[in-house]
Amino acid sequence: MQPAADQPGPLGLLQLRVLDLSVEEPGRGGLAGSLPGSFAAMTQLQVLMLAGHSFSGTLPPSWTRLQQLRVLDLSRNSLSGSLPSWYVSMRKLAILKVQINRLVPSGSGTWEFYEYLLAGGAQLQCLCVAGNVGELVNAAAAARLQGKAQGRRPPIELVIDAPGSSACDPAPFK
After folding, report:
1. Among residues 74, 81, 82, which one has the least CA distance to residue 53?
2. Dihedral through CA 137, CA 65, CA 68, CA 17, nearest 10?
3. Domains of the chain by range and CATH?
């Protein structure tokens, strides 16, 4: 019995730790369509970068199995919907970049989602959400989140909407 063609297993990708298919020029990437739910099988993945393509639709629920993920960069695509609340299960996430998409705030309050990413042992240090259809983090929410990060022990410097900042550089995680 052969594995399904859409699964990463046949190529030996199940132990992959870094997958960077980003392109610098928005829309220059050749990848389009929905984000592949099958990436969830790569449970050792720590860096997933798919910026600058033409991905559309919402974030796959199956990606919550990516518990080792430290960097998620889906910027400069055409993703829609809101950031699902179940993504808070990604407790090791340090860098979340979803700027320049078509995302909207969730009805339950998007800032609460980010606040949870700072709770307990969470490690969020970079959050880039600007340039979406809706304002995902307003100035008041950004100040609140940064205050919460500084109040942690040890304090975390949370950078919001500054993708060029050293805190948003994925290189240390590669």
Report:
1. 74
2. -110
3. 9-173 (3.80.10.10)
∠ Cα 103 109 112 (to 5°)? 105
How far from 26 is each of 55, 66, 77, CA to CA, in Å? Answer: 11, 26, 7
56 forms bridges with which residues in the sheet? 34, 78
CA of residue 129 relative to chain centroid, distance = 10
DSSP state, residue 45: -
pTM of this structure: 0.88
Q: pLDDT per residue over 7-54, tens digit each?
A: 555 456 788 999 999 998 766 668 999 999 999 999 999 999 999 999
For residues 116 and 111, give the distance between their C-alpha atoms in angstroms, rounded to a whole number. 9
Helix (H) or strand (E) holding 56: strand 54-57
Instruction: List, for the chain, all residue ranges whose pLDDT scores fall below the cut of 50.
Output: 1-5, 10
**Distance of alpha carbon 48 from alpha carbon 35, whole angstroms:** 12
Q: Cα–Cα distance between 37 and 133 in angstroms, integer?
A: 24
